[in-house]
Amino acid sequence: MTTLYVLDVPENVGVPAVADADPAVTVDRVGPYFAITAEGTITIDRRATGCRHAVWYSCVAGLTAATVVQHDKDALRLEPS
Q: Superkingdom, according to UniProt (predicted)?
């Protein structure tokens, strides 16, 4: 299962909020982190999150069974590894 961990701080809340809008994605909590999981690809649009660039590029706290295939000014896309 593809999993993205994002620290639960006010600057990052847009990331799990946008991910949670995708019916194939589940957002849970693990300690101080959001755990964003899916059976397949996870794609999060940066503009939809409202994150500024500095926050966007530092929002990834960790991955499980995932490979980052896109992390630019437009989107973060993870594929299962």
A: Bacteria
In angstroms, the CA 81 to CA 53 distance is 26
Q: What is the pLDDT of residues 44-75, one digit of tens each?
A: 999 999 999 999 999 999 999 999 999 999 99
pLDDT in tens, 8-46: 999 999 999 999 999 999 999 999 999 999 999 999 999
The pLDDT of residue 44: 98
CA–CA gap between residue 52 and residue 54 (Å, rounded): 6
| Domains, the chain, with CATH or none | 2-80 (3.90.56.10)
